[in-house]
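User: quick one, fold this
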Amino acid sequence: MDRRTLLKTGSLAALGLGFGGCATRSGVAVAPSTQFVKLPPVRASWDRVIRTTVGLRPHRPSGFVLKAEKFGAKTVIHNYGHGGSGHSLAWGTGSMAADLAIEHGERRVAVLGCGTVGLTAARQLQRRGFEVTIYTEKTPPYTTSNMAWAGFTPTSSLVTAAGRTPAWEAQFRQAAEISYRQLQLMVGPRYGVSWIDDYGMMDSAVPPQ
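Assistant:
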């Protein structure tokens, strides 16, 4: 299975989703491969662990929140609760949050927090001509986002099937599609985004099907 097929049939399969953008560079859709890759044995043991990091990620059983709410003369755009999918969905929810802000006349915006969700929302607002100020307790590299693996895993720790609603699912699909396109445009050394092969470990070998 190549990395693009993994994104389509692995990371996105948890919610039964697939994007047309998940294809090879030639534009031909890739079918899952049954060919096994033989890798050298991994010498895994606790004494070989170099470092352990832990980050607390805000999570909501009902999924992330993305909506506008009026408080007197002010408008608050809620964009939080991404759980383990912040890096995967942030460009999308940031774009959608910025679109909500455009509907209101004010062009000065305060963004709370500068993890991946806050920073991408701020950048999407700037692209639309907003004057943005970020208020945050911590800055990189001391944010939880800075500790994350940052793989494209949009369904990671999001919401169970029973907790999904049609409205939330529509938001999720839109956010994932926007983020996926944006991240593809950022592939390269300038932004540190790249395609990688991803392997998982198990206790015993699985025979080829």
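User: anything notable?
Assistant: Residues 63-196 form one domain.
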